[in-house]
Amino acid sequence: MIRNNQHKYSISAMCKVLQLPRSTYYYEVKERAKEDDITSDVIDIFQASRQNYGTRKIKVELKKRGLIVSRRRIGRIMKEQGRVSAYTVAQFKPHSKSCNESEQKNELNRKFDQEEEMSAIVSDLTYVRVNQKWHYVCMFVDLFNREIVGCSTGPNKDALLVYRALASIKVDHNKVQIFHTDRGNEFKNKLIDDALKTFNIQRSLSMKGCPYDNAVAEATFKIIKTELVKGRHFDSLEDLTRELHDYVHWFNYLRIHGTLGYVSSIDYKNADLKEFV
Known about the structure:
By secondary structure, the protein is an alpha/beta fold. The chain is about 45% helix and about 15% strand. It has helices spanning about 1-5, 10-15, 20-50, 55-65, 70-80, 160-165, 190-200, 215-230, 235-255, 265-275; strands spanning about 120-130, 135-140, 145-155, 180, 200-205. Strands 3-2-1-4-5 form a five-stranded mixed sheet, sandwiched between helices. Residues about 90-100 have low confidence and may be disordered.
């Protein structure tokens, strides 16, 4: 009110009438000016994250720009600007999976922090609505740096979908020591077994009914459902595939990960490689 009427009345007079110390008014004006200065940075970072980053990650990105800002302040700016992270509303969609009764053990044993690139990869599948029909996405994640190293899309939840995701991995398959998944039948069949045998990759299966054994893959798909699928409409399988590949590139090269110290998967891998140069 004081700011809007300062062309009519003196600030001192208005502060006196409102019983407000002038120092308080000037402090608020100063803070508001600071907030206006960083608003554009907050919006820029939020948009560059595909509207996914919340206050924690925006704070990290602001620090990279030399700006030290509290999460409360960032949250206030986002609220004023009408920016809402995709993670604000939790998403949950129960789904059932077929299960095989293989005696294969859990060789990974929840060792999700791997010290070597491609030493252990995990995989899972999820479903996406494409023009009134369900389609499926399969992904392979490297536990070393959480990089999505392979992916595929298709109309069926089957071994071929998994095989195409495995074939899309550009890194030498001979580096892989362990391949871990849940007990879905699409992962346990002759087509996949022959591929693993060719590259001498050890199989690992979660315990029956225990999603925690494949927690990284489960978490990655939760991220994808929130950041890529939520609120989107895909007209065709080609549309989904194109958007998925674009997202995977952003996920690997630009998206910062809390588990990696707030750097991208590729930056984390490159930093590790420099240690050996």
